[in-house]
């Protein structure tokens, strides 16, 4: 077992397991997860629900969406903390194969880099609307540069940012709801019909789940810094539940009271410059993780497809610069439709990963041997066709099956199909007395259990 090399630590272990000595307390990780869930995007989703649904139906939509998110987040989070690997690297063995993981990495990288640019543009327009002395492109450059620097320095810098931005955002939420609702009866808001066009419960649940499904899939990027599976469960239940219910239901009430889904207008009218600034910090908190996970996905894809090991910091700098430029020239927002379409491909990835790791479990002996020996797992097969078939089937179910919730249909279709076919193939292989070929070990194993279990900064 070897110690972590400085280059690996500086790269936040982008392609190697996070050693035990580099793990963090669950509170440090939970604050960042809460920062993701209690973001500007969640406030916007809640306001849309409040504008188009009764409080009861909005509560049910948030509940159904949250349960789905928590199940996916906990399952993928446990895989991440056990193996210490990011989502795209984990996919090499958990269902997709060596080259198949490159497709997962590219999906994550393109989606999150795109949303980084879109949300940076929202930040720029909001600041320009309130502080007209600087053009929107200048705010875009300032915001993009700030987030890029935070993501550049990795997990610890993002943790410190979360300790500042999350309390600030909670203070804003408290102030906004008191200011907006003080002239309204809470009972009337809870029982009132929606002020806007009605939205179905299925559509509302899809909106809740779809808004954070990419965040759920990139969970291993974050939980590989946890110390135990129990920590993953605790932080998920607390952060997702509080984020979805506290922030989501607050925004529902604001949408009812203001009779508008325009959360930016609601916030800025309540608290002016301070409100806009704190709202901007909420965007920063989710955007640093967008950029960070995007860089991890691209680093994995580059190594798999090009055979080159790129530095995570260099990739972060390039992605941040491109996203910032697109938002500065005002075209990042035009990619929203494409990014939404691309996001439909995300739920089946989670279905395959969870089915392989927890049901089929063909990858588990390989992971267990690697963890015991302190090395990276054995090189996986280049392609696993079953995962590609299940990925396509999940996408088709989410796109064309009308009953139910598209995100749930997509994930469940991929999960059930992969689990059933994978178990059948495993039984047939065992009955024939044949095993899948084991490829040679990698020549540069990564650290897994280096250092004491409870070491590491908080």
Automatic annotation (TrEMBL):
The keyword Membrane applies. It comes from the Bacteria. InterPro entries: CodB, Pur-cyt_permease. It is found in: Membrane. The keyword Transmembrane applies. The chain crosses the membrane at residues 58-81, 93-116, 136-155, 162-178, 198-217, 237-257, 263-284, 314-332, 338-360, 381-401, 407-426. Pfam families: Transp_cyt_pur (PF02133). It is a multi-pass membrane protein. Residues 432-458 are annotated as: Disordered. Belongs to the purine-cytosine permease (2.A.39) family. This is Cytosine permease.
């Amino acid at each position: 077992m070897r110690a972590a090399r400085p280059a690996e630590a500086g790269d936040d272990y982008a392609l190697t397991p996070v050693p035990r000595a580099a793990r963090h307390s669950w509170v440090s990780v939970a604050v960042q997860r809460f920062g993701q869930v209690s973001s500007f995007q969640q406030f916007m989703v809640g306001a849309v629900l409040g504008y188009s649904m009764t409080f009861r139906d909005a509560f049910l939509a948030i509940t159904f969406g949250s349960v789905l998110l928590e199940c996916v987040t906990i399952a993928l989070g446990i895989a991440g903390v056990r193996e210490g690997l990011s989502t795209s690297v984990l996919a090499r063995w958990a269902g997709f194969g060596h080259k198949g993981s490159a497709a997962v990495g590219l999906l994550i990288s393109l989606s999150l880099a795109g949303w980084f640019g879109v949300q940076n543009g929202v930040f720029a327009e909001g600041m320009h609307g309130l502080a007209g002395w600087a053009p929107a492109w200048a705010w875009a450059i300032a915001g993009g540069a700030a987030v890029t620097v935070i993501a550049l320095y990795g997990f610890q810098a993002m943790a410190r940012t979360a300790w500042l931005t999350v309390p600030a955002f909670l203070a804003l939420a408290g102030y906004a709801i008191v200011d907006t609702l003080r002239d309204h009866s809470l009972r009337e808001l809870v029982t009132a019909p929606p002020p806007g066009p009605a939205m179905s419960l299925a559509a509302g649940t899809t909106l809740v789940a779809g808004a954070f499904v990419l965040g759920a899939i990139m969970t291993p990027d974050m939980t590989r810094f946890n110390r135990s599976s129990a920590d993953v469960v605790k932080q998920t239940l607390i952060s997702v539940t509080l984020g979805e219910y506290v922030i989501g239901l607050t925004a529902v009430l604001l949408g009812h009271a203001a009779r508008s889904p325009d959360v930016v207008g609601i916030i800025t009218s309540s608290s002016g410059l301070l409100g806009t600034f704190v709202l901007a910090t909420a965007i920063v908190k989710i955007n640093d993780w967008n950029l960070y996970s995007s860089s991890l996905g691209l680093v994995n894809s580059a190594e798999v497809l090009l055979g080159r090991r790129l530095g995570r910091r260099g990739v972060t700098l390039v992605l941040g610069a491109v996203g910032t430029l697109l938002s500065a020239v005002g075209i990042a927002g035009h990619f929203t439709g494409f990014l939404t379409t691309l996001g439909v491909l995300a739920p089946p990835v989670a279905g395959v990963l969870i089915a392989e790791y927890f049901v089929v479990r063909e990858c588990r002996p390989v992971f267990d041997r690697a963890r015991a020996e302190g090395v990276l797992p054995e090189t996986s097969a280049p392609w696993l066709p079953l995962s590609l078939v299940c990925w396509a089937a999940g996408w088709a179910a989410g796109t064309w099956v009308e009953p139910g919730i598209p995100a749930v249909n997509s994930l469940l279709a991929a999960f059930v199909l992969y689990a059933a076919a994978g178990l059948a193939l495993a039984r047939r292989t065992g009955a024939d007395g044949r095993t899948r070929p084991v490829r040679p070990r990698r020549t540069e194993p990564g650290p897994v259990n280096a250092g004491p279990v409870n070491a590491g900064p908080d």
